[in-house]
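Repro case for the chain-ordering regression, as requested:
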Amino acid sequence: MAGSVAGGTPDGWLLARSLRLPECVRALDAGGWTALLAIARAEQMIGTLAWRLDGVAVPPGVARILAAARASAEQGRIVALWEAEAARRALAPLGVRVVLLKGTAFVAADLLAGQGRSIGDLDILVPRDTLDAVEAALIGAGWEWVKPDPYDDAYYRQWMHELPPLIHRDRDRMIDVHHTILPLTARITPDAAVLLADAIEVAPGLWALSPTDMIVHAAAHLFADGDLAGGMRNLWDVHCLIDQFGTDGLAARAAHHSLSREVARALRLAAALYGEGDGRTLLDGAYLRRITARDGWGRATRPFTRQTFYVRSHGLRMPPAMLARHLWTKWRKGGAGPASG
Amino acid sequence: MEDAGGGTVYRMARPETLKIVHLDSFAAIYHRASGITHLVTAPAPEILATLGEAGLTRSALLGRLAMDYELGDADEAALLARLDELVATGLVSTA
Amino acid sequence: MRHSFAVRIGPVGFRIGSDWRAPIAQLESLYATYPKPHDGVPDFTVRLFAARPWRRFVRPAVMIGGDYVLPEAAPLPLAQGLLAAEMGMNLQMALGQRRYLLLHAAVVERNGQALILTGISGAGKSTLAALLSLRGWRLMGDEFALLDPETGLIHAFPRLLSLKNASIATVAAELPADRFGPLLEGTPKGSIRHVVPDAAAVAAMDQPARPALILFPSFGFEAAARDVSPSEVFVRLTQASTNYVAIGERGFDALTALVRTVPARAIDYPDTASAVAQVEAAWLDR
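-- result from build under test --
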């Protein structure tokens, strides 16, 4: 396997192995540590790594870097929970159930997956027929539109599974309001009503998806709602959720949401990276090569694989005519393709 | 303005979430729940202290402020505007 | 990457990788007397790379990357590769530093006590720091003051001094030529020339100092001085910090303690000679 602790060219597998077997980092030399930290930062998993290595003997210089990463993740947790609380206060008069998604949900519910996790925007799920009221309440509480571009605005509203992102004018933090977990353009339509109905209250007035739905969402997010960027973190989420909650009822739930294939693949990939994985398919290997495509400088590598998956992910999300129109509009504005380098 | 939210009870953030350092005529408040620092001057600290954790309605707050502090000649609308600012910061909550 | 260089500046280790040899050679020469990162593991990685493979050779433009990046950062011509490296290192500090509260300030030290010079860009911090270092002060840094929340001490960060435009000649009049890097003309900030800190500053860079005075210099005014209230210092220093919010409560504790215990003055100065005299006077009065 590429990227072994001793020798070889480091890649995402070095990070995967360090998360899976923390003690193995004791074999790292200075160059190995340097690569591991750069890869972990590039994957936005330095906080996760720092928590995972808490208590493992590491060189003092590394210990200081990891301590700073833990402190940074802790501050990120505080800020993320406050954004959730701010949304709760803004939406409380509506009586709408605010269901937190992704990182904010993990830390609100105090899950393993949330430990040290970097958290960006606040993602919430609300019933589709409340979107207008939710939008109005958020704007009344200080959130503002990010995208003044009319094409983007129409695109979000018509085809994506969320309102165009809003940003808070004082706190400078984004909120994404979803009404389902996949775009309406995707051929797959998860049962949003069931997601909402089975949500669990994790803090007063704040809800999260049921554990099985969290796993289904993580899988859907990885394969159908992105270009596999952030795949290492996403699969770590899946790994931690399964570790904590097991897989009872998961297959049935995935089938109910028409996401059996995606969930099965996410489980295999998570096991390959972070568990005792074997039994991967040929295509799993391609996914893993893409997901672990990082070098010891934190650079994205294997650009051909990346481009292929970018097109593929768009193909999943949009029917062909709409895809052409979207790429054309993006291209005209000079923003085509994923970042590289 | 005075009628808005007539029966609503306004509460100070839990005291263990606040760290207040008096600098001069301004006080710096670190709000642990949000990670946000606020720099405030009178009457904001007085409003917070008066509301307390139990909380008060708008009219009860005005009455208490007039009684406890020499804010008697302060414009009520201005005091309530300060209260609304504190709600926007999260240092005071209504829900 | 093809070429690389590692260095420690004060408590912070860096690794700079580059698609080109030239910027690395300049770093090696200018940072020749500096130590390597603790335990061989840098705190931050900087990458200088070509946007497309052929841009290594054709109108080579240096993109700045690293652990932390700003998406809108524009590339620089290869002749300014040294500036790109310095900007990349500053960027890692500004966006990624979490151990110390960063204040955008120059710092000099005397008798174990630190003088913090802060204020808007163009106030002459780097020039003042360079001149003071020639007059019995130890240079601790011209860009960032590193305030340690655990101890309240300032740690040195004596990277290359960055002189701009007219200040290049002012300092060149007093310094030997071998302390200067190449003259970089036509940069986004005009002409820039880097200066290697003196040997004493490099030798003592692991010695922190207790903050004793905060000065807000303003260039271009009649000589004047006034006290600055703690709340004003607090606001101005939060604005002069790139990581105050990210550090959270430790930053609040460190900064409120600093502004309550350390006196602060604003000084206006018409020329550098006057500035040095005003700094010395404020130091005696503190």
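Ordering looks correct now. The mean pLDDT of chain B is 88.
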